[in-house]
Design brief:
CATH class of the largest domain: Alpha Beta
Number of strands: 12
Number of helices: 15
Strand content: 5-15%
Shape: elongated
Strand order of the largest sheet: 3-2-4-1-5-6-7
Number of domains: 3
Helix content: 40-55%
CATH superfamily of the largest domain: P-loop containing nucleotide triphosphate hydrolases
Order of helices and strands: EHEHHHEHEHEHEEHHHEHEEHEHEHH
Distance between the termini: 89 Å
């Protein structure tokens, strides 16, 4: 299977997405990614590969020598080579090479440069799908329209194969994409990722996993395993249905809607593990949303009203500001129904989280007296090690009992009465407020430092690429100069030979005149 990845202009993230898809796909399929980008391409600098082992060698029959395996990667690569390489590639040999690679690998991904050059038309023709990478701005969209319209008019591309991926999305609604009569299906929108770094960033890998799930669900779809958690049994005096019903709530369980694809059947009444849903346009087609599900099915609004009424009757709302971000709506709703919710980590007395994005910031919050609770799966070894390293003591593993965490928060030392607890919470809040400026300063300083590091890294990459380009141009110019010098020497030699012949001719002519006289 061959997938082409194309963009109308450089800088939209085509190569990053191509490599990220290759890395993700290699977990399931034997994968090779080809750099058909000679502008020049970035595979050599990104993956630290040998430019001499390039696509020209593969086209001429040396595929085994041209294929390279990057360090710590599970996919193979063929690099593009030099800016003039594509001019030396014969179309028939290119097609033969693609057929050979298609037989050797389960998936071949081709990163095509932002221009229609000779050879790319054959690759489009052989591809099962063509991923068209764009951004939602006027410049990219105008080029996209021009490219697609020209290719369609000349019969160079089958529009049925083209799927559009919008990268670096910053707004909910697309403005410029598909603004003309040329409509292409947008299968995925990749949000703007600050400080992306490389194609190995976990966020971009997660998005490429979603893209593959959409394109080829039979191959890549895999039900995700999340937190398994239980809701405590409630007293029979509190009904789970409206007052006019006769049934009483036997046991309230949290049932997530685990269908990750449209049309999936509803879950049974036993606790299941919560699966994460890919952020795709197909989500809007799901039949059910994630809500608390009781024995008697109710509408979401009625369920929320009933939960609020039950919570008020039991008076289980505690004067503590808690920041909640577990990644799962059901868990978040349970904790938010018990505590005052904080909008940010800096404003909270305690936090319940399932990931760590900034180790130093979390460490500063712990130093400021905030209680951090981490929810983890058994397989999250690196996350747990990081948490222990920065001083998080409260780590809960799946299956998770929300009641146990609530008890931990409201009675951290065991046996406090409500008055003592409230007093201590007020003291902790005061201490947290005093330390907040320092926390903000640390956070701002870390963010500014990370931004500076990212900018410096980008500048270094640009300088390295420019240096490589200039060195290559200089070497090419030196070779051209040498060739011209050789040509000059040949011309000088020819001139000398012509002079000698001319002298001989004059001499023979003079002798002939003397004989005639």
């Amino acid at each position: 299977m061959i997938i082409s990845i194309f963009s109308p202009k450089g800088g939209v993230g085509k190569t990053t997405i191509a490599l990220a898809i290759s890395k993700t796909a290699a977990k399931k399929l034997k994968t090779c990614v080809i750099e058909f980008d000679f502008s020049p391409g970035d595979f050599v600098s990104i993956l630290d590969l040998d430019r001499k082992k390039n696509i020209l060698e593969a086209v001429n029959g040396n595929i085994d020598w041209a294929v390279q395996r990057p360090l710590k990667q599970s996919f193979d690569v063929i690099v593009g080579g030099y800016p003039d390489t594509y001019e030396m590639i014969k179309p028939d040999k290119l097609r033969k090479m693609m057929e050979e690679l298609n037989n050797r690998y389960e998936l071949v991904i081709v990163d095509i440069q932002p221009a229609f050059v000779e050879g790319c038309i054959d690759i489009f023709d052989m591809s099962k799908d063509i991923l068209f990478i764009v951004e939602d701005n006027a410049s990219v969209s105008s080029r996209a329209i021009g490219n697609i319209d020209w290719a369609r008019a000349n019969g160079f591309i089958d529009l049925k194969k083209v799927k559009m991926i919008v990268n670096k999305v910053q707004k909910k609604e697309l403005v410029y994409v598909n603004i003309t009569e040329i409509k292409l299906p947008v299968i995925y929108k990749v949000p703007y990722i600050k400080n992306l770094g490389s194609f190995e960033n976990p966020k971009i890998l997660k998005h490429t996993e979603n893209i593959l799930n959409i394109l080829y669900p039979s191959i890549f779809y895999e039900e995700k395993r999340g937190f398994l958690f239980f809701r405590r049994k409630q007293t029979k005096q509190i009904p789970a249905e409206p007052p006019n019903t006769e049934e009483t709530l036997e046991e309230t369980r949290v049932l997530p809607a685990v269908e990750n694809i449209p049309g999936a059947a509803a879950t049974e009444e036993t606790p299941e593990e919560i699966g994460s849903l890919p952020a795709t346009k197909n989500i809007t087609e799901l039949e059910n949303e994630k809500y608390f599900q009781y024995k008697t099915v109710e509408k979401p609004d009625e369920i929320k009203k009933e939960q609020k009424r039950i919570s008020e009757e039991r008076s289980e709302f505690y004067p503590m500001k808690v920041y909640v971000n577990t990644g799962y709506k059901e868990l978040d709703d349970i904790f938010r129904s018990k505590f005052e919710t904080a909008d940010s980590l800096a404003d909270c007395d305690a936090a319940i989280i399932s990931y760590i994005s900034n180790k130093d910031y979390i460490r500063s919050l712990i130093s400021a007296g905030k209680k951090i609770i981490l929810l983890a799966r058994d397989s999250d070894y690196s996350l747990v090690e990081t948490a222990k390293e920065i001083g998080i003591r409260d780590i809960y593993y799946s299956p998770i009992d929300p009641g146990e965490i609530i008890d931990n928060l409201i009675n951290t030392e065991g046996g406090k009465n409500d008055m003592e607890e409230k007093t201590e919470l007020e003291k902790e809040s005061a201490a947290a407020e005093q330390n907040q400026p320092e926390v903000f300063e640390i956070s701002q300083k870390q963010e500014s430092e990370s931004e500076i590091d990212a900018i410096l890294g980008e500048i270094k990459n640009i300088l390295a690429r420019n240096k490589e380009i200039y060195e290559r141009r200089i070497s090419m110019q030196e070779e051209t100069i040498k060739q011209k010098e050789e040509e000059i020497k040949e011309l000088q030699k020819m001139i000398e030979e012509y002079r000698e012949k001319e002298e001989k001719r004059k001499k023979v002519f003079m002798e002939l005149q003397e004989l005639l006289q």
